Amino acid sequence: MTPPLPHRDGLLSRARIALLLAGLAIPWMTAAGAEAGDPLQARLDFSQASLRWPDRIRDTLTPPRWLPEGERFVYWSRVEPYRETWVLVDAQRRTQQPLLDAESLRSQLTQLIGKPVTLPPVMPFTFTSDAKALVFAIQGRAFSLGLTDKRLVALEPTHPVALSLMPGNVLSPDGGAVAVQRDTGFAVVDAKGTARVERTGTEDAPWRLPEAAWSPQGRFVAVWRDDMQGMHRLPLVDYSTPVEKVTWVPYSKTGTPLMRSELHFVTVDTGQVAPAPGDAAESYDWFAGWRPDGSEALVLQLSRDGKRLDLVAVDPGTGKRRRVLREERKDTFVGALDFVAGGWAQQVKPLPDNQHFLWMSERDGWRHVYLYDYSGKLVRQLTRGAFPVHAVVGIAPKSDAFFVLASAESGAPYDRRVYRGLIAGGALKRLSPERGMHRPVLSPSTRHFVDGHSTREQPRVWDVASTDGRPSFRYAKADTSALAELHYTPPEAITVKAADGVTSLYGVLYKPWNFDPKKRYPVIDVIYAGPFTTVVPWSYVGPYESVIAHSLAQLGFITMVLDARGTPGRSKAFQDVNYGRVGQTEIPDHVAALKQAAASRPYMDLERVGIHGHSWGGYFALRGMLTAPEFFKAGYAGAPGALTEEAVINEPNMGLLSDNPEGYAAGSNEALADKLQGALKLMHGTSDVNASLSTTMRMAQALVRANKPFDLLIMPGEGHGPEGRYYQDDVRRFFLRELGDPR
């Protein structure tokens, strides 16, 4: 996501001279090679290679799958000694063995497909309904591999399990049918490939299958019918021919109509498709699953402003709806974009008794687990304390236990570890002693769990842990040997105070591979600051902003990544700091952090500070240049958003425009165009349907009217994340030109 700067006369030659005088060599090039070639290009290439450093790690990233019985699971291995094949692990016996050696797997696939096969790094798979074979797809064809006979068999394209491997399709509980997403329509297809039910949609009214579409007994299939007819449309212009073509894309801007979704139920035996009408209020709706006996479907409805969340139960036979409970906040939000983008899936978890469910709430100031019955009565709060629970990751089928991922350790507010709790109540018991970010997958019995975990300093390892306290054993670990060529080292952790002088903030600093503490380095703040995600790395491979920061640091900068107040993952009060006032608290926190970090690090040159971000980060890069113009000397804003753009991104954190006009006005970058002092560059793709091109056009217009010089890169046909490295190199050249080299 980076472009090159304009080729101004004399610019590159001066840069080359400066680089040669600096004596900067690239690790994989000899000094003679660097001098003989283009030293600037060599630096850009090394920065690009550093951006791609996670690709050099071999890790077993395909999610492991537990067999229904026997405390055994299968994983796709990318590391020795079982590289590029499936491995069967027995958690009780603490053993593992490949189902098939890699050479045999490739040989059989080559014979069945008729040409040599290259095995991919990630190989999604599932099991047949009898759990006697696994099923996977490669080069557009599906195959089964017997767990006992090790036989590889090609499957018919219409086989339900084969179809279920395609994104959007959902297999029935008995494996005998599959609900298939077909463009704007859907079908329910049986084992013979015959469509029992089929519906077609339109671009403005498509059908959409939820992940938990099938009722537990397979009698009903839930499906959404979306209505986009009243939505605003973004114009996407194709400039590739002299006769321009315009495509109109539905997009809900702040204050404009939302997409409306109506739930329908398919009765599989009869083929009937009947609606379950909801109310007329605008909301964001999710299908959250079923009661275990299939008597009711569960739907979550978040109000447009994010202040109210309802759990609704729907009878699939009659379409009758009833509200089970309502979670509401009058002065802030219940759910924002982090909830919309996936957090909703953790909101409600039915218990096996069919009478109760677990519910997540921040009502006491921290995200915790509560026990309810289906009448909507609160039974008790199950977890409590000054820490957040992020997810319920398992519920014991025959006991009183449930399992969560939480940040419950003192002094480690962002670690995510596994804990066991009891429905009867009481303190959580920690099951993962190691620090860092854990990724648990519990067995069906919940007696064991796969635990993939890493820290900022330690690459990921994969353990099999017991939930009753027995010692774990390691079955795989990531191979990072290919990073040596890049001289990769983890970033330095920093802890600072926010602009309020009280709240602790956490971040990291990245340094060049050839860092010299006697030099003075220009500094770049790589910012995102969106109020719905964190960007500081706590695992070995962190969020993309941290990867960008590492890449830019290799050019000769000190770069910072920080999670300021207003971001999630801690207390509700921590995130609510910028509620209704996005854009007013974040930059002061970042400036305070940089000043504190530099106070004990004389190699950080705060006379040469830049700021860079993309999307929300683009908005905040602009924000830094306009609200702290004396501090930030150069800023590059990629695909910047605005508070008037997509409704779901803005309204839950800002309130509705009609209710908070002052907050929206205070967060406007356009209104501050006359404050610009330093060097500014904007980038936007003309086909961006996330942050529309109009945000950059309006900002450019405001800067022109304020008579403020700036640079602008328009990338025809590119979306929100431009492909290739043109944009990436442009960012690199911009900061090399504007901030210079270490001194």
From TrEMBL:
Domain Dipeptidylpeptidase IV N-terminal per the UniProt entry, residue ranges: 213-459
Q: Pfam families of this UniProt entry?
A: DPPIV_N, Peptidase_S9
Lineage top rank: taxon: Bacteria
Molecular function terms, GO-annotated: dipeptidyl-peptidase activity; serine-type peptidase activity
- Please state every residue range assigned to the domain named Peptidase S9 prolyl oligopeptidase catalytic: 549-735
InterPro entries xref list? AB_hydrolase_fold, Peptidase_S9_cat, Peptidase_S9B_N, Serine_Prot_S9B/DPPIV
A GO BP term here is: proteolysis
- Protein name per the record: Prolyl oligopeptidase family serine peptidase
Q: Tell me which species this is from.
A: Corallococcus exercitus
Its organism's taxonomic lineage begins at:
Bacteria, Pseudomonadati, Myxococcota, Myxococcia, Myxococcales
